[in-house]
# Entry
Amino acid sequence: MIIGLIGKPSSGKSSFFKASTMIDVKISPVPFTTIAPNIGIGHIALDCIEKEFNVKCNPKHGYCKNGKRFVPVKLADVGGLIPGSHLGKGIGNKFLDEIRQASALIQIIDASGLTDSEGNPTTNYDPNTEIEFLENEIDLWFADVIKRALQKVTKVSSKADLIQILSEQLSGLEITKGSIEQALEHVSYTDAENFAKTIRKISKPIILAANKIDLKRSQENFEKLKERHQNIVPTSAEAEIALKKAAEKGLIDYHIGDDFEIKGNLDANQKKALEFIKNNVIEKYGSTGVQNCLNKAVFELLNYIAVYPVANSSKLTDKEGKVLSDVYLVPQNTTAKELAFKIHTTIGEKFIAGIDARTKRKLSADYQLKNNDVVEIVFAK
# Structure
């Protein structure tokens, strides 16, 4: 799974990427600073089940802090898109190609309205405009790909045949048969542009990050944005970076995705900066919004759940004896056997049954996993 970070130039994408991964990337008010996509690892935060089982987990990947499990997920900062990107304007075509690999997209918006559609300084720019043009650019790009694919669709004998053909032609966009089937329930494939828009919404859902929310103008614009967009999160990537750096220096205890407490000796400037974040971001919106965006992308846009595979359901350990070492983020309705294949192809092929660690009952191959399930996979050896 890859989450793509998209937006116009100078909206704060690279800052959001750094805030999520703490990887140093070039951050500049100059448009098209990002020439090649930045790839890194962020984390999805969830309540760890260690307390329920009265154990201490030992994560193989990611980490656990104060009962919060942070599960790695790949992020791609795919750079700046401008009007006409689908035609190759700017350097958009290059970045549009990166979007095809993403499962979900987070559009970073300059909620302050202080940069125009190409990322140049301005005043009173309407953030709604960048939301609309960017979505339109992706839809037009999808439509172009789909129109070319449809040229290869000639005689279709059945709906299943059509889905198979479209699946083969659209595999480059990482679109599943399920997404195609769902799109066809709403619109005919012969209406290429509407079909493209529908399948994009299904296969590359977008959450909006109203960035630079610490600025007064952003806060005013955000109230207007909420009236038109439900799936929008107030965000300050710069505040998130500042809090994580302060935590690294031992100045604060930062509960990522939440509040912080001062624990070190601060100079006047540090104290002023943290007070500003506290008053203008945390107290108003509950957090910097960065972690919230990542979580919403996975759990709300993609409808994923967290499951814990173990080798021993009684001890909750893997084959090396580590307690609750793995968490898998999987789509809802994933079956026990599908989980087995995700662990290892051989385990899936030799699957016998699953065992629920809570109830100890056997689970069939088609048992649909639930959030926070702890499952031992039994397979032929």
User: Anything to note?
Assistant: Confidence is low (pLDDT under 50) at residues 27-35. DSSP finds 13 helices and 14 strands in the chain.
